[in-house]
Amino acid sequence: MNLTSDNIAPAHPAVLEALAAANSGPARPYGHDEENARVEALLSDVFEKPVAAFLVTTGTAANALSLAQMTPPWGAVIGHEEAHVMHDECGAPEFFTNGAKIVGAPGLDGKLTTETFGGLLGRDFWTPPTHVTPAALTLSQATEAGTVYRPAEIGALSEIARGRRIRVHMDGARFANAVASTHASPADLTWRSGVEALSFGFTKNGAMAAEAIVLFAEDLIQNLAERRKRGGHTWSKGRFIAAQIAALLEGGLWLDLARSANARAAELALGLEARGLRTAFPVEANEVFVWLPAALHEALKARGAGYYVWTSESIAPERAGGDGEVIARMIASFATTGAEVQTALTEIDAALAVAAPRKRAPRPLGAPLF
């Protein structure tokens, strides 16, 4: 049982075939090749409008470079207090923005709301020149809690941001899973709802190492090529990044893979609930967060089960855990099969048998206590 992350999944065979095809001869360097042009055209089709795309190999680079385009050193990037950019980028957004402040706001189920975002903006500490100026809003799609924003939610947050001249960025490391979950169009989940830049993740969804910075606002294009180069994220043989993305976009493979991952996560969640285990967050994409009693957690770890122990302050009160329980984050990838889900549930059954308290036989009347 290994449900630690979708990062452990292999590259999809179509990606490896595309890499081999891209390796068949010479091509222009630094992104001026046919594969990069094809990816930009494919992305324009996906989003139903012409877009600019800058390809990188890590989500950290995509997020940090995007936010640096939006945020001056004296600015603030506002996001959910448990967002990936807040805690899991090792300070890269601060580094690439030359020192901008990352400010977190609360929100149940890993999501910002108009109340939490507007409430933060309404506080009295945004006074220049002694304080940073709100410059960018970043939304994780799907969130660190495995939940997803609907177009109306994004639009409401973007409207508040627009009123304060705040740019809107989306960390889409699992954007494909969010599209598959909501059944909304990629356009409705991004630019039609006010998003100006998207870090479109492919690595977690079948690529070897490929992410796209997709820009919907033309003014954000200026000097991003130089910023990417200066930051060390411009590949001379950029066709090998583009080939991976093109293989996933063509024919809608990226959505097929995300639908499969989401379906396996839903199967896992149903199996866990059938065993009396409760989830900490709604299961809306490919992540399942489940409360494990301490004895079950120890029994699973003893059996070598793979999952992350999680902590969060954004759990709704009605989904709070009991004494001694831990949150296990279990993720299904595009490569996770139904058989593997059943294997995981079988492992949990075996661990439950070990963890269940042993019932003592009733003591006969008159028997000694010791």
UniProtKB/TrEMBL annotation:
Belongs to the threonine aldolase family. Homotetramer. Transmembrane segments: none annotated. This is Low specificity L-threonine aldolase. Pfam families: Beta_elim_lyase (PF01212). Keywords: Pyridoxal phosphate. InterPro entries: ArAA_b-elim_lyase/Thr_aldolase, PyrdxlP-dep_Trfase, PyrdxlP-dep_Trfase_major, PyrdxlP-dep_Trfase_small. Its cofactor is pyridoxal 5'-phosphate. SUPFAM superfamilies: PLP-dependent transferases. It comes from Chelatococcus sambhunathii. Residues 3-292 form the Aromatic amino acid beta-eliminating lyase/threonine aldolase domain.
